[in-house]
Amino acid sequence: MMSNITCILKPCLVYCAAKLDIADHLREKSLTVNELASVTNTDNISLYRLLRALSMLGIVIEKEEQLFSLTPLGETLRSDVKGSVRSAALSTIGDLWPVWGQMLHTVRTGETAFDSVFGVPFWEYCKQHTIEAQNLISTNMEFTELVAKQLASSYDFTKYKRIIDIGGGNGSLLVAILEEAPNAQGIVFEEGYVLQKAKELIEKSSVKGRCKTVSGNFLKSIPANGDCYILKNILLNWKDEDAILILKNVRSQMNKGSVLLIIQSLVPEGNQPHPGKIHDVIMMSLYRGKERTRKQTEFLLQSAGLKITNVVKTEDPISDIIEVQIV
């Protein structure tokens, strides 16, 4: 039990490393504590104690007395590498620290902790404060980037000609999919405040001639003429009424040959362990949505005139590929 209580220290250590840009400072060569203290404007004694603790997490290594270098794990905190999780480290403990402190408020009242702290729902805050919310916006993209190639190779996308990723973030998933499906065209459908990142990533990719971006709001309408629509980690961000609305909007553009792929977990019933049960508490605190069981997911789908036709398990336990078609 004590390890469950003190484990909060680990993300705090990682947050400090990210905030001080430790990984960026160590990317080219090892530095002494005094050198790092100088470039990070920190107390050298306290910094050494932080670095020593980070070495216990495998993020840095003390090569000689008070001389530190970066490990492969620590590389993921660099700001300039593909697969970086720096934004996640900064947002989870930095931006969202007050939210976790309000979790009990959520349990007692049912009110989303994020709304209580920031005064508006999560996505509304991101739209209104694009600079302040940059780490929050980037975090979801970082998680998708980590699993994009694995998801793209877990399902046969070659049978589709026009793939539309709804709420597709920076486009990393769709780019990975189009690399696996060389004859397909793709659209990243996303809000305007996010699309610039998608445009930049697509332009640098090998699929830039087959992939474009469209700005819009999936609560209002969905692009037409897709034979494969994707909703990755979208429905779990929304309460049932909104999730059904999103599904109905997708359904309105589907025909008998179209497929909707919902990528998220189907949380098992009862006492069966599953990471989605922990992830659900994050949904409870940040958004107005939730992780759902198969029964709960089927209720949403039935309400929109859709049904599950197949479920593909992937290496990521919270990223089932749920194949859906018109009833």
Summarize this structure as a short list of keywords or feature phrases.
alpha/beta, 16% strand, Arc Repressor Mutant, subunit A, 47% helix, COMT_dimerisation, Rossmann fold, 10 strands, 2 domains, 327 residues
Write the layout of secondary structure elements.
Elements: H1 2-6, H2 9-19, H3 22-25, E1 31-32, H4 33-40, H5 44-56, E2 60-64, E3 67-70, H6 72-75, H7 86-95, H8 97-100, H9 103-109, H10 113-118, H11 122-128, H12 134-152, E4 162-166, H13 172-180, E5 185-190, H14 192-204, E6 211-215, E7 228-232, H15 240-251, E8 259-264, H16 276-286, H17 294-303, E9 306-312, E10 320-326
Helix pairs in contact: 2-5, 2-7, 4-5, 7-12, 12-13
Fold and architecture overview:
By secondary structure, the protein is of the alpha/beta class. The chain contains 17 helices and ten strands. The chain has a seven-stranded mixed β-sheet with strand order 6-5-4-7-8-10-9, sandwiched between helices. Helix 12 packs parallel to helix 13. The longest helix has 19 residues, at 134-152. The N and C termini lie far apart (48 Å).
Please provide a brief summary of the model.
The chain has 17 helices and 10 strands.
Approximately what portion of the residues adopt beta-strand conformation?
Answer: 15-25%
Oligomer category: single chain
Number of strands: 10
Our Rg estimate from Cα atoms comes to 21 Å
Helix share bin: 40-55%
The spatial strand order of the largest sheet comes to 6-5-4-7-8-10-9
CATH superfamily of the largest domain: Vaccinia Virus protein VP39
Second-tier CATH architecture of the largest domain: 3-Layer(aba) Sandwich
Q: Per the principal axes of the C-alpha atoms, what is the gross shape?
A: globular
| Alpha plus pi helix count | 17
SSE topology string? HHHEHHEEHHHHHHHEHEHEEHEHHEE
CATH domain class of the largest domain: Alpha Beta
Question: How many strands, which pairing sense, and closed or not: the largest β-sheet?
Answer: 7 strands, mixed
Unreliable parts: none
- The total number of structural domains is 2
Structural class assignment = alpha/beta
CATH topology of the largest domain: Rossmann fold
- Rounded mean pLDDT score: 95
- Separation of termini? 48 Å
